[in-house]
C-alpha cells in the first residue's frame, strides 16, 4: 500500500512543474506595433515588422518588463518604412539574435547594440539598404559569433577587432576595399566577400580562417608576399579577371579541400607546375570556363584519388597522354573524376591511350566533338598516333633559335611541311628585333625566357619588354613621356603628358605620336623591338642629361606616411605633399638607406651605355630615382621569376615633390606614382565604350 505522504508530495511537485511549463515567455503588456511569439525550444521572438519607424520600435520595447533572459530573437522582415535603429532601441533588453531581412534599413547607430554586449550571438541585416556599419564597435560584443550583412550597399570594410566572431558574411554589396588582419579576429572561420567590386586582394594572414569566398568581383591581382592561411579548407576566387592566378598561394594550402577558380581568365595554356597541391584532403578543383586550350605535362599535380577535377566548358581539343595520363593515374585509384564535358575534343588517335586503358574511362567524363561519349569509343578504330614533336614546330628559317640537341628534321605528324621540331631558346642578351621573332614566341606581358629578378638598374636590352611606349612631342621633336601598352591600340600614360599645360584639355592629335618598339631616343638609331625593366623612362639621368637609350631601375615602394614625413623634412612643411592622395604611392629610397647600399643595388639612368664603365660617373650617381621626362612610365610588378609569370602595371609616374635636378636628389626625395588598380573600372569602361 502506497504511503499517503508520498502521494501528496508527488502531486505537489507535478503541480510546480506544470506551472513552470505553463509560464508565458512573452510580456503581458501591449507592445504594438510589435508582437511576441513563443518558441518551443528557446525563448520568445519579438517581431516588429509592422513598425513604421525606429521611434515606434524603441517605444514598444521600452514597455517590456519581462526578464531579459526570456527574450531570444528580435525580428524585422519585409518592412519598407523603418530606415534606422537609433541609440537606446534595445535599452536593458538582452536578445541573443537580431534578424533584419528585406528592409529599408540604411544605418544602425553604433551604440544601439551596447546593451546586448554580453548576450548577442548572431546579428543579421540582409537584403536591405545598409550603406554604413561601425565595424570598430564589434570589439564590444563579447559573444558575437555570426555577423551577416550580405545584400546591402556597403562600400568598404574597415579594420576591426573581435575575439569571438566566427562567421562574417559580406557578399552582394558594393565593397571596393577591405582591411583584414587575422590577429585581431583570432576565431574567424568563414569570410564571404563574393559578389562585390574588389579589384585587389591584400595578403590574408589568419591561423583560424577555413573558408574564403572572393568569387565574382573584379579582382585583377592578389598580394602574394605575407599570405598565410594554414587552415584554409575552401578557397573560391572564380569569376574574376585575374592577370595572374595565385598559384603560389594555393600550393601552400596544406589543408585545402576545395579550390574554385572557374572563369578566372586562365587561358590559353596551363603551364607545367601551374598547380602543385600539397593537401591530402583535396576533394575539388574547379577550373571550368577558363578558355583553356591545352595543359602542359605536369600542369596539375598533387591530386588525391578522391579529387574531382572540373576542366569542362573550356576549349580543350586534344587529350594528350603526357598531360592527362598522370592525372588519371591518380584519380583511377579511387573515386576521383576528371570532367572534360563541353570541350571540342577531337577523338582521334590522340585518344587511343585513354580508350585502350579501360581503367581510365570510369574516371573521366566527356564527349567527343561529334557527340560520342568517351565510354562508347571503339578501341579498334583508334590506332596509336605517329610520333609527335615533343617540343615546338617552328619554321625551318628559325633553326638558329633552336637548342641544338633538340632539333629533329625527321617527319613528325604534328609539324607542317617547311617546319622542324625543336625547343626554341632565346638568350638573355638577345638583340633580335620584332621582325625576327616568330609569333608563337611572343605573349604580351609574359616573358619569352626565364629571368632572374635584377637587383640593379641598367640600360634595358633591346627586345626585352614589348609593351613600353614612348610619347613623342612633334613640336619639340623629342620623347616627352613614357607609357604602357595595356591592350591593342590602347596606351596607358599620365594625363598631363597629352594635355595642354595647365588645363585638362587634350592636345591636338597631330602634335603627339606614340612609338611602340623604340629603344634609342634618336630616330636615326631606331630599333624594332621594345623593352623595359621595373621603372623605365626617357627622362633625364643622374647627370641631368637626356638619356640616349631607354633605361630601367628597380625602386622600393614606401608608405605614404613615410613619404610625407621625409618630404616635409626636406621642404620644411607638409603642404608640399597635399597632392599625395590614397590614389597614389611613393617609390624611392628612404633617408636611412646608406649610399653604399644604394650603390650596391641600383644603377641610375645614364646618358650612354659606355658611361656605366666610368667609375667617376658611378661615384657621383649613388642615388637611383625617376626623373623629369619619365612621366607616364610604368612601374611593374612580378611575383616570381618562373616562366609563366606575368607583369602587372602597379603605377605610372605622376610627379615629383622636389624641384632639384636629378643629380642633386638624395634618399628621402621620392617619385610619386598613380595607383592603376584604383582606376581599373574606369579603364574597363573606356574599353567597353570604344
From TrEMBL:
UniProt-listed Gene3D superfamilies: Ribonuclease Inhibitor, Trypsin-like serine proteases
Source organism of the structure: Darwinula stevensoni
Repeat in keyword set: yes
GO terms assigned for molecular function: serine-type endopeptidase activity
Keyword line: Disulfide bond, Hydrolase, Leucine-rich repeat, Protease, Repeat, Serine protease, Signal
Keyword Signal: yes
InterPro entries, per the entry: Leu-rich_rpt (IPR001611), Leu-rich_rpt_4 (IPR025875), Leu-rich_rpt_typical-subtyp (IPR003591), LRR_dom_sf (IPR032675), Peptidase_S1_PA (IPR009003), Peptidase_S1_PA_chymotrypsin (IPR043504), Peptidase_S1A (IPR001314), Trypsin_dom (IPR001254)
GO aspect biological process, one term: proteolysis
Protein name (Swiss-Prot/TrEMBL): Peptidase S1 domain-containing protein
Domain Peptidase S1 residues, every copy: 454-688
SMART domains assigned to the protein according to its UniProt record, in alphabetical order: LRR_TYP, Tryp_SPc
PANTHER family xrefs: IG(IMMUNOGLOBULIN) AND LRR(LEUCINE RICH REPEAT) DOMAINS, LEUCINE RICH REPEAT CONTAINING 53
Pfam families reported for this sequence: LRR_4, Trypsin
Signal peptide range in chain numbering: 1-22
